[in-house]
User: What shape does this take?
Amino acid sequence: MPGRPVHEGVPPHIEGPLRRWIYRALERGGVDAVTLRLRITIDCQSTGRDGAGYLASLQANELLDVVQAILHAGGPFPGRDPYTGKLRYGGGRAQLQLDIGYLLDIGGSAYQVNDDVTGLERRVDETTTAQVAAAAPQHLGKAKRLARRSASALGRVGEVAVEPLE
Assistant: This one.
């Protein structure tokens, strides 16, 4: 989103929604394809045979890898309502694909779903991200000095609070 900070990795405000999306995306299958792609083993005895739950509970820094593997394996794989047999979550697979794109966008992730919905790609290249991060404190200092000068010119005394935009 324009004007909002871009976050590397999985910041806390994206973590919960991302975990829920992973769980929903693997309800009807795909766990084996994802674990093979990620080269991890699920101990079925300790997880109660809930592979989707296991993958959704991995460390936060691994969640984007799980999303990437789900999309690369042809997912998401939504479940069906046991009573009606209809796909859950509205449009099923298509809805979950839209959901993950929206979640990453609104959460300010540095990643987005690629055009053919087969994986993730960087929204902003790493050089640009580093340049913005380095420039932000510099511009905040300039904004504070400008605010102090304006307040002084208007006859106001004291510290002027300038907060960074988020």
Observations:
- Residues 126-153 form the longest helix (28 residues).
- The CA atoms of residues 17 and 56 lie 10 Å apart.
